[in-house]
Write a structure and sequence with these properties.
It comes from Wickerhamomyces anomalus (strain ATCC 58044 / CBS 1984 / NCYC 433 / NRRL Y-366-8). This protein is an all-alpha fold. Strand 3 and strand 4 (about 1220-1225) form a beta hairpin. Helix 11 (about 230-250) packs parallel to helix 13 (about 280-290), helix 27 packs antiparallel against helix 30 (about 580-590) and helix 30 runs antiparallel to helix 31.
């Protein structure tokens, strides 16, 4: 179609006023409207543009563009927009003209924010037309376009301008077109675009409170549209901008200001990643460089940024897209700066919550930070993990290392780390409790197994014996592990579920918590009574005030200092609030039921948090409410019967009949009846009826019920109906036909009756004479064992008949002959079930002999010789069992050998019975040093259960001072214990007991040096140890030096173990004095003939003494301690050491070195190495588990370890008889070989040893020990 045929503009009227023609405003508006309407309908490709030549020029006339009427400007702008459309792609205007045009457009854009203006429709048409035909890009062709473009962006990004939501895509298109065609985006525009990522952060999720209504266009959406439409362009601009800021930060003078800008840019990167991650491609390379920068601040910032990005939800997977940066970020757990590692932890924990694809990598990194060398990192790690929801930690993260790290950090020295760890673990257990015990989905899951053990780990913390830790443990025990629960059955079930997860130490701690309640309740009740009498000081009774202060001091000792317990308790008494007094007494009363305790404690805590109550004291300044609240909260937790409450007994008894809970419920019933028998007041008749309705030997064992009744009636005898013949007939049935344990407690119940004599005679007559073939024979022995304690006069008459019967028919014969397949050990539980009555009979026979002696201990002096004779025979039997490894059946007998597990239990029982007799002074005098040397065999027994049970019993008796201190040196023979846990436990007990003794005695009297003096007993026992003797007596010239070196190396382990636990700078001179003092005595176990004949063995104590002196000197040198002459004089034990016959003999011994010169150099090297290892070993952080058998890097000395040898034949063994004579093997009785200990695993002499951060629980259990012995 030719130009002449194309449609032309029909509008012919003038739109510009002239002197010839003045156009009224209304007419002008009508003409412009008509023109605009016609132009809007013009088809660009089918129109004669030449027809617009005049009108296009008129439209840009200043009279129109700058017209004062808004309508004129709006219509002119619309007309121009269509002219530009029709002329496209070439604009019919110059740059200056376009500049004026776009200024007009911008004026119209501003009016879009006002939807009420009369020409809003024209303004919308204008911007829409510019966007549709992309005419807006003409602005980028103008030479000086920056100001214009910036004004457009400033207009649309101004939060004060509210553009309608429907205009959002149009405005976005306009901005997109400008950015896409603009050669150089100015920094101002770029900032406007990018800053919207930052300003949008504060408004995310807050649409209701936003200053922009939901119908308004969002500048943030403009930014998203621009970035999505121009990712490459924006990526380049952003990278350039990032690089410039980095450069300015490195080179700029005001580095702090520049660094703030850099931080802002990093925050921007995080927000960009959420919405348009594509534009961060090159920026991530710069951030990766920052991760590895020398500047710590850069690494911290980059670590934080990547962590936040990882925690974001984005359409790109950061790990896959930026793999190298991800790997670099993971390595920040090993960064040299703790600040970087700390920041990594803070961000990593958030990523764990929001991601599922990198759980393993991040959780492994968190596990590493939990064992970081810097406590700040460990603290932040625990805090970060505490913020992770339990469901995420258990099910999603599911990382064993993290939980194990938290468990180890619960023993951390740093109080905040410890507190965070304990609280996190307790909350985790509380949240997962239902899943652990009632959800099959958690079954078999390793993480849930760890969570299941959390209560045990927490309760074991009580052994550290730190009042701050005890506070945390008690708090989480009541609030998280066993929280308040209204439903009685659920409450008791939870207590049983928790209790059955505990090991022996955990259960002991739980029982100790409940045992402590009675004492603490009594003291707190006294404080309330004193406070009531004191009446806030108004009565002015000085005596009462003194009692109050004394009670407060006692209570404050066990409370954490951070809550000022003493001042808090003093404030409580000054408040003098009768309601507080009443609530406290009600809460801790043993007669209060569970709901009463719960409600009264709740009200008490509420009142203690009321400032009006706490600060109601006249003439007193305000007091921190939290201090008094926390102080009383823990006191109430400890003093109230939350667990062993009478409200729980009914359900406890009910669950004891449930197969799932029967065993553990019966154990708790026994504990409750022992500690708080009053809790059973309402259930006594039910327990009695249960016994009456039972038949011995039928159904479940009733031993726990009998035990509970004994404890109840023992402390509340008024509740025992002595005339209930039906009950006591049934008790007699249990004694004669029940299991051995049932029989035992049946006899104990009989001993509480006023008809005890008649019932005991009736019972004894029913079981004696014994019938060895009876199915109840073992139970009858249990009855006899108890009757010796309760009715000695009845059974003593037959004792001379009973003793040979038991020896011949029980101890010296075996109904079952041992074989290779026999187990090495049988547990107490198996024996209690009656799984091996033959072994039980043998153990009971030993107990009968022991109990007979216990019953004779108070015999008059006239019968002393007779009692001593009996005692000597029993001791000889016990010693023989220990020395022979539990075997006393003749090898010629058809019943030989005794099964291995029989031997194991019998030698252990022999040792335990001997310790019982040692508690009685009359028999303690009969226990000679040779006997003590035999007991070493049990501490070094080949069976771990024997070692553990015996050493724990020994330390328990030493702790309560129930046995003589001559037994103390035995504990040091734990030095070769292969079980590190047991060895460290005993080491801790020694250290704690030693420090307690030292601090308790102000004046260093004889009693205050018992531990130091025990070195003499230790050295004496070493000199008589069978392995030491074997090595030292190797006479072959080629092996003599080797044997001597082995002997001294063997002894060195015990000496260094002693020094490690006892030696201090203050007592080193005293220890050296005792080591040298030995050389001023003879060995009392040798006869005069041995000294006359110069038997080489008489010098063994001097050899060991010289080794001890050498070790002490080496320790003194290594520690730079001062070794001075001890000023006092202390005599050594006459049982172990005898005086020299002459001063010449003494001088000769003192001046002689008994360490062979040929091995001196090698031995000194060993001593130096061993002393160095024990004195330089540092207490590792609790989270660091020692590597098993790890030796130090120093060069090893040959023959460092003495390998255990197989046992020698009895004829080659050495023995020391009970009279103290030292006999050579050839003269020893073949029936009494000295059993050599077999240690299956030796600890390297060069090994570093880690110390457990663990001390004994302070609770005194002497009463329980005595009661336990009575039961035995």
């Amino acid at each position: 179609m030719t130009t002449n045929r194309l449609p032309k503009l029909k509008f012919k009227k003038s739109i510009v006023s002239s002197p010839k023609e003045s156009i009224p405003l209304k007419e002008l508006l009508d003409r412009l409207d008509a023109l605009s309407t016609e132009l809007s309908k013009v088809d660009q490709e089918k129109f004669d543009v030449n027809s617009l030549n005049n009108i296009k020029d008129d439209l840009i006339n200043k009279k129109l563009i700058n017209h004062k009427d808004a309508g004129v400007q709006s219509l002119v702008a619309c007309c121009i927009s269509d002219v530009l459309r029709i002329y496209a792609p070439d604009a019919p205007y110059t740059d200056s003209e376009l500049t004026n045009i776009f200024k007009l457009f911008i004026k119209q854009f501003k009016k879009l924010a006002d939807q009420g203006n009369g020409y809003y429709t024209q303004q919308v048409y204008l911007i829409t037309r510019l966007a549709e035909v992309r005419s807006i890009i003409l602005i980028t062709d103008i030479d000086d376009n920056t100001a214009l473009i910036e004004s457009i962006f400033e207009l649309f990004y101004d939060s004060n301008n509210n553009f309608h939501k429907k205009l959002e895509p149009v405005i976005a298109d306009v901005l997109i077109e400008i950015i896409s065609e603009w050669d150089q985006i100015s920094s101002n525009v770029l900032k406007l675009i990018l800053n919207r990522f930052l300003t949008n952060t504060s408004r995310e999720g807050a649409s209701i409170t936003s200053n922009l209504s939901s119908s308004s266009a969002s500048p943030f959406n403009f930014t998203l549209s621009i970035c999505n439409a121009n990712p490459d362009r924006l990526a380049r601009q952003l990278t350039k901008f990032f690089s410039e800021v980095l450069f300015e930060n490195n080179e700029g003078e005001d580095s702090e200001v520049q660094f703030k800008n850099l931080r802002k840019l990093h925050n921007l990167s995080v927000e960009i990643w959420k919405h348009v991650p594509e534009i961060l491609g090159s920026v991530m390379g710069l951030i990766d460089n920052e991760l590895n920068a020398d500047n710590e601040k850069y690494r911290i910032l980059a670590t934080e940024t990547v962590g936040k990005i990882l925690a974001c939800q984005s359409r790109l997977n950061f790990v896959h897209t930026h793999r190298e940066t991800w790997i670099s970020w993971l390595k920040k757990t090993l960064d040299i700066s703790p600040h970087v590692r700390t920041r990594w932890v803070e961000e990593a924990s958030k990523a764990l919550i929001n991601r599922t694809d990198v759980l393993a990598e991040i959780s492994n990194g968190l596990a590493k930070t939990l064992i970081d060398t810097d406590e700040r990192v460990r603290l932040v790690s625990t805090r970060a993990i505490s913020k992770i929801p339990s469901s995420v930690l258990a099910n999603k993260v599911n990382n064993k290392s993290i939980l194990n790290g938290l468990i180890q950090l619960a023993r951390e020295k740093h109080p905040e780390i410890r507190q965070e760890s304990i609280n996190t673990l307790a909350c985790l257990f509380d949240d997962c409790y239902q899943d652990i015990f009632y959800n099959d989905a958690s079954e078999g899951d390793e993480v849930y197994k760890i969570i299941n053990q959390i209560p045990n780990h927490i309760l074991n913390l009580l052994y550290i014996n730190d009042k701050n830790i005890n506070y945390l443990v008690d708090k989480v025990l009541v609030e998280k592990i066993l929280p308040f629960e209204s439903d009685e059955l659920k409450r008791v079930e939870r207590m049983l579920n928790v209790f059955q997860t505990l090991d022996d130490k955990g259960r002991a701690s739980f029982i100790a918590f409940n045992r402590r309640q009675q004492q603490l309740s009594g003291v707190l009740t006294k404080l309330i009574e004193f406070s009531e009498a004191f009446n806030g000081g108004h009565d002015g009774d000085a005596d009462v005030e003194k009692k109050i202060n004394k009670t407060i001091d006692w209570l404050s000792v066990s409370l954490p200092d951070r809550y000022n317990p003493k001042k808090s308790l003093e404030r409580f008494t000054k408040i003098n609030n009768r309601r507080l007094y009443y609530l406290t007494k009600l809460t801790i009363s043993p007669d209060s039921d569970y709901e009463t305790i719960r409600n009264s404690s709740k009200e008490l805590f509420t009142r203690l948090q009321d400032s009006k109550v706490v600060n109601s004291v006249e003439d007193e300044s305000s007091y921190p409410i939290n201090d008094i609240f926390q102080t009383f909260k823990i006191l109430i937790y400890r003093a109230s019967l939350n667990f062993y409450n009478r409200s729980n007994i009914s359900s406890l008894l009910k669950l004891s009949e449930n197969s799932k809970y029967s065993k553990i419920a019966q154990e708790l019933v026994d504990n409750v009846s022992t500690i708080t028998p009053a809790a059973f007041k309402n259930q006594i008749q039910d327990l009695v009826k249960l016994i009456k309705d039972s038949v011995p030997g039928v159904g479940e064992s009733k031993v726990n019920t009998l035990r509970a009744l004994f404890h109840i009636f023992h402390k509340m005898k008024d509740y025992l109906d002595d005339d209930d013949s039906e009950f006591f007939d049934k008790i007699l049935d249990f004694a004669s036909k029940g299991t051995p344990l049932e029989a035992k407690f049946a006899v104990k119940l009989i001993s509480l009756s006023k008809h005890e004599d008649a019932l005991s005679v009736q019972l004894f007559d029913s079981i004696y004479p014994f019938d060895g073939d009876s199915e109840y024979f073992t139970s009858h022995l249990a009855v006899l064992s108890q009757l010796f304690l309760t009715q000695h006069s009845i059974v003593e008459e037959k004792a001379n008949e009973i003793t040979p019967f038991l020896i011949k028919n029980v101890l010296l014969t075996n109904e079952v002959v041992g074989k290779e397949s026999d187990p090495v050990w049988i547990s107490d539980e198996e024996l209690e079930k009656g799984n091996d009555l033959n072994l039980s009979a043998k153990s009971l026979a030993l107990r009968i002999f022991t109990n007979r002696l216990r019953s004779l201990s108070e015999a008059d002096e006239e019968s002393d010789n007779s009692v001593s004779s009996i005692a000597e025979h029993v001791l000889k039997l016990l010693i023989s069992l220990i020395g022979n490894g539990g075997e006393i059946v003749s090898s010629k007998s058809g019943a030989y050998p005794t099964p291995r597990h029989y031997q194991t239990r019998l030698r252990l029982d022999a040792g335990l019975n001997l310790l019982k007799l040692a508690k009685i002074p009359r028999y303690n005098k009969l226990i000679k040093p040779t006997t003590l040397n035999r007991l070493v065999l049990l501490i070094q027994d080949e069976e771990e259960n024997v070692r553990s049970i015996f050493i724990h019993k020994l330390t328990s008796l030493l702790k309560t001072e129930s046995i003589s201190l001559k037994f103390l040196p035995l504990v040091y023979f734990i030095a070769y214990e292969p079980n590190d846990s047991l060895k460290n436990e005993i080491r801790t007990w020694i250290k704690f007991s030693f420090s307690k003794t030292s601090s308790a005695i102000a004046n260093r009297a004889q009693k205050s040096i018992v531990f130091e003096k025990s070195i003499t007993g230790l050295l004496h026992s070493i000199a008589h140890h069978s392995e030491f003797l074997e090595y030292i007596e190797q006479k072959d010239d080629s092996e003599e030096d080797e044997g001597a070196l082995k002997a001294f190396t063997f002894a060195l382990e015990y000496i260094t173990f002693f020094l490690d636990t006892i030696a201090t700078e203050q007592n080193i001179s005293l220890l050296f004095y005792f080591a040298t003092r030995i050389k001023q005595y003879r060995d009392a176990l040798f006869q005069e003939n041995d000294f006359k004949e110069r038997n080489d063995a008489i010098y063994n104590i001097y050899r060991v003494s010289d080794l001890a002196q050498l070790s002490i000197k080496e320790l003194q040198d290594h520690k730079n301690w001062t070794l001075t002459t001890y000023p006092g004089k202390v005599d050594l034990s006459s049982e172990l050491f005898a005086s020299m016959k002459s001063s010449e003999e003494g001088q000769k011994i003192v001046s002689t070195s008994f360490i062979p010169e040929s091995i001196t150099k090698a031995l000194k090297a060993k001593v130096r190495q061993k002393i160095s290892s024990i004195s330089t070993s540092k207490r590792g952080r609790p989270h660091q588990e020692p590597k098993e058998n790890e030796a130090p890097k120093s060069k090893k000395i040959k023959a460092d370890s003495v390998k255990p040898k197989k046992r020698k034949k009895a004829a080659k063994a050495r023995d020391e008889d009970d009279s103290g004579n030292y006999n050579k093997g050839k003269d020893s009785s073949p029936n009494k070989p000295l059993r050599k200990s077999s240690r299956a695993k030796r600890i390297s002499y060069a090994q570093d040893e880690e110390e457990e951060e663990e001390e004994e629980i302070e609770e005194e259990e002497s009463d329980e020990e005595e009661e336990s012995d009575d039961e035995d």
